[in-house]
């Protein structure tokens, strides 16, 4: 038996989505602008895109670049961030470099990278890699810095070498923080993926979107925005599930009831 | 918490230190000898308790030697702060030694130096004649902050040390389960540290350290973060556990009661710079029971005398 409060809580995300679509539909009907299709039109265009083999291949190519960029970034950023967090000299060396790169929009680097590496997969994957790396490095760094000294001493007394302590104490202890960085990184991967395809127009989900824009197929544009948004929600949900399982030990023990029921 | 209430009588013998109470010496080098029965041994009030007659005992050998150790820290204002000044101390095997002093007297730093976690600015500490250059499994720390591995269960924490030492998983698990039972946490093997209270966490920390069989236990205000009731229970349990296998214990505390209750020897430290002020042999019978000890005038005298000495030094500090 589900209480009414719980029912509302569970239905809330769906209600929010429906509410947004209704507002969209009404606004579009009122404004009557060619470049602003109704929600129904946009949703109707989705099966057309997903049914088209070429469009599907484009989207899959995007996802492949994103996955590759994300994974390589995580594999490099986590060790680097942890080392920076535990060694002052490593931090002193890399910090200025990262501080320079951090505020630069990664897409702004694309023209240069395109000059060097062309408009192919490598360029786009590299931009995704750069976009993901920084938040992951930053969070790994903060996580490693916050590891309690006494925990490391306890490990040292058991005979763990400095390298073992980094892998077997700093890494797990910083894991909640690292995964927070990875979650930000995942969303950034999706953003840089689309932006990179917007600049180097060759293939991919972003390419479909902007080609449609050029040709004035606004229902396709909005359909692509919905598709990209849905991909984001899907990936984030999957990641959140994995994250919650990995750091079960650090989550609050009991869920405090959010309502006063 | 179960513990051998009927402690082995032999425990009463081995604290045969001279009854050199409150002798004002700076260097802690009491040479224990076979103690003549001078009335300080237990004549148990309970007839059920069997007390072995006092026999001669070999003099205990030094396990830790601290030789003119000084530690200077740089403060944030870039000024040198002398945390420890010229400390020399010898700790005998199987002794329970407390380092007692006000906060900021460097007592924890001294413990960290013995642990190998901190390198002294000058002087040296030795373990069994070997200079201490870093941490090692022969010296097991227990910290006030518990420092458990939060991603490991209670069992995982306790097994960590033995596994690191290369003990096979099944064997390590069996030993660890026994230890968890000994510290009174049977049934909590699969709990994560966040699910435990402070007292329980410290029990796990103790079991985790005991699991890799260090020769010396280094306890850094282990009960400092606990409420009074839990603290008392853990003191009792620690004594019971210690009286079973008598490891050497170096115990840092700022509580006079705690130091006198637990120790064979209390090292009193004074503040800025951290110096040893006094080394006091606590000649009270073992096994010690709180209920008996608190009524014992000798225990009370130790506590009062030590507190008075701290007060005097405080006043001297104000006057100067």
TrEMBL record, chain A:
GO terms for biological process: transmembrane transport. GO terms for cellular component: plasma membrane. It is a multi-pass membrane protein. It is found in: Cell membrane. The chain crosses the membrane at residues 12-31, 66-85, 97-119, 220-239. Residues 59-239 form the ABC transmembrane type-1 domain. It comes from the Bacteria. Keywords: Cell membrane, Membrane, Transmembrane, Transmembrane helix, Transport. InterPro entries: MetI-like, MetI-like_sf. Belongs to the binding-protein-dependent transport system permease family. This is ABC transporter permease. The lineage of its organism: Bacteria, Pseudomonadati, Pseudomonadota, Alphaproteobacteria, Hyphomicrobiales.
């Amino acid at each position: 038996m589900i209480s009414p409060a719980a029912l509302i809580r569970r239905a809330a995300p769906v209600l929010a989505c429906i509410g947004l679509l209704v507002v969209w539909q009404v606004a579009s009907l009122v404004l009557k602008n060619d470049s602003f299709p109704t929600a129904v039109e946009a949703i109707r265009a989705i099966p057309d895109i997903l049914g088209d083999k070429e469009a599907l291949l484009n989207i899959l190519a995007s996802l492949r670049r994103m996955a590759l960029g994300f994974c390589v970034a995580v594999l490099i950023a986590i060790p680097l961030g942890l080392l920076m967090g535990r060694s002052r000299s490593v931090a002193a060396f890399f910090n200025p470099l990262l501080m320079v790169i951090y505020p630069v929009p990664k897409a702004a680097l694309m023209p240069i990278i395109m000059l060097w590496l062309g408009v192919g997969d490598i360029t786009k994957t590299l931009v995704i890699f750069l976009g993901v790396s920084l938040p992951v490095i930053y969070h790994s760094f903060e996580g490693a810095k916050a590891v309690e000294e006494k925990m490391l001493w306890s490990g040292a007394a058991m005979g763990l070498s400095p390298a073992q302590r980094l892998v077997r104490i700093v890494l797990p202890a910083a894991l909640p923080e690292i995964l927070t960085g990875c979650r930000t990184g995942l969303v950034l991967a999706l953003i840089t993926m689309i932006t990179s395809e917007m600049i180097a127009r060759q293939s991919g989900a972003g390419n479909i979107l902007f080609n449609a824009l050029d040709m004035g197929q606004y229902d396709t544009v909005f359909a692509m925005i919905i598709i990209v948004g849905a991909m984001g929600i899907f990936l984030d949900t999957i990641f959140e599930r994995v994250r919650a399982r990995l750091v079960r030990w650090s989550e609050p023990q009991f869920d405090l009831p959010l309502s006063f029921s | 918490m179960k513990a051998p209430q009927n402690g082995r009588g032999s425990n009463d013998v081995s604290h045969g230190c001279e009854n050199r109470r409150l002798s004002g010496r700076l260097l802690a080098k009491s040479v224990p000898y076979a103690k003549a029965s001078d009335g300080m041994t237990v004549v148990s009030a309970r007839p059920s308790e069997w007390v072995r007659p006092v026999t001669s005992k070999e003099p205990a050998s030094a396990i830790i030697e601290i030789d003119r150790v000084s530690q200077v820290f740089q403060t944030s204002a870039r000024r040198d702060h002398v945390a420890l000044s010229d400390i020399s101390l010898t700790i005998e095997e199987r002794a329970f030694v407390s380092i007692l002093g006000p906060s900021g007297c460097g007592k924890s730093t001294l413990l960290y130096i013995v642990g190998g976690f901190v390198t002294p600015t000058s002087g040296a500490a030795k373990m069994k004649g070997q200079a201490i250059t870093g941490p090692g499994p022969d010296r097991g720390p227990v910290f006030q902050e518990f420092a458990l591995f939060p991603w490991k269960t209670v069992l995982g924490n306790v097994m960590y040390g033995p596994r690191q030492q290369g003990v096979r998983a099944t064997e390590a698990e069996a030993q660890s389960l026994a230890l968890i039972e000994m510290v009174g946490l049977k049934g909590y093997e699969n709990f994560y540290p966040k699910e435990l209270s402070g007292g329980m966490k410290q029990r796990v920390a103790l079991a985790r350290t005991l699991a890799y069989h260090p020769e010396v236990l280094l306890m850094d205000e282990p009960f400092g973060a606990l409420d009074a009731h839990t603290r008392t229970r853990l003191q009792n349990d620690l004594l019971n556990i210690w009286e079973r296998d008598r490891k050497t214990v170096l115990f840092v505390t700022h509580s006079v009661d705690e130091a006198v209750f637990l120790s064979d020897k209390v090292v009193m430290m004074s503040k800025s710079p951290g110096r040893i002020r006094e080394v006091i042999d606590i000649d009270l019978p073992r096994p010690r029971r709180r209920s008996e000890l608190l009524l014992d005038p000798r225990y009370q005298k130790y506590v009062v005398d030590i507190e008075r000495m701290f007060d005097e030094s405080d006043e001297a500090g104000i006057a100067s």
